[in-house]
Amino acid sequence: MSIAKALTIAGSDTSGGAGIQADLKTFQERDVYGMTVLTTIVTMDPNNQWHHGVHPVALPTVEAQLQTVLDGIGVDALKTGMLGSVELIELITHTLKGKGLQRIVVDPVMVCKGNDEALHPESTVALRELLVPIADVVTPNLFEAAQLANRLPIQTLEDMKEAAQIIHATGVKYVLIKGGAKLNHPQAVDLLYDGKAFELYESDKISTTYTHGAGCTYSAAIAAELAKGADVKEAVGTAKRFISAAIRHGFPLNGFVGPTRHSALRQFG
Which segment of 51-55, 118-122, 137-141, 144-148 scores lowest on mean pLDDT? Predict the structure, then answer.
């Protein structure tokens, strides 16, 4: 029997709730074979309010990992997550374009300080100009969408639509902006735009702080469904159900963080 293969190019979350760990758990739950290219190792200090330490992987090591998977095995779909430098974004973009790969999901992870400042604004520009244009789907949250669209913070559904149009103009095929529970809207709403029409994916808002890794999990679920042959709208619909269940059954990991539960849809429906 053959099994669809998906690749995640992302950082490692040592606590296990986000990053490559979340992606691999999601791939397993969605019945695809998961592979990794590790870009960064993120650690947390339990003696300093869970302060994050970011430890980049050397570019030649990233390149060797890409060669292992893309030349040695092959993929049916892939996703990107934390890419912490312009040089890394350039390497990933050049490699993916050179291989002519399809079914690319870009989760434009932006570590930010406060609500309105990107930690590495030069990486945001590189994402916007290099990687996003070659993607099939880009999956920004509200902050990331505003950064990619180079506009003021997104507060309404109309703001989401305007940002989606700006981002789509870069060349990406589909823009999925995740409004979640933060948008001023009765339900947790995500907006998909293909350049012609807007489609809403809505679910009940869930009152919880246990959402660590939700964005990684959502984009990984989309990539998994694309790997199995689903079209983008079908993949997003399945992924929305998957992440909604995972958030609904999130749990506290320690006194600092609570992740989503990747097995929730299978276990609880």
Answer: 118-122
When computed from its CA atoms, the radius of gyration of the chain, rounded to whole angstroms, is 17
Percent of the chain with pLDDT over 70: 97
Q: At what angle do helices 232-248 and 214-227 cross, to 10 degrees?
A: 140
Separation between Cα atoms, residue 99 and residue 135, nearest integer Å: 13
Question: Quick one: pLDDT at residue 249?
Answer: 98
Q: Provide the residue count of the chain.
A: 269
CB 180 within 8 A of CB 240: no
Percent of the chain with pLDDT over 90: 92
Residues facing residue 13 across a β-bridge:
42
Strands ordered across the beta sheet of 51-56:
51-56, 33-45, 5-13, 77-80, 104-106, 137-138, 174-180, 188-193, 198-203
Instruction: List Cβ neighbours of 259 (8 Å cut-off, separation of 6 or more).
Output: 15, 16, 17, 18, 22, 210, 212, 213, 250, 251, 253
**DSSP, res 140:** -
> What's the rounded mean pLDDT across residues 138-148?
96
Q: Are the C-beta atoms of residues 191 and 167 closer than 8 Å to each other?
A: no
The token pair at 145 is 């969408």
Instruction: Report which residue type is found at 8.
Output: T
The dihedral built from the CA positions of residue 56, 62, 64 and 69, taken in this order, carries a sign that is positive
Average pLDDT over residues 130-156: 96
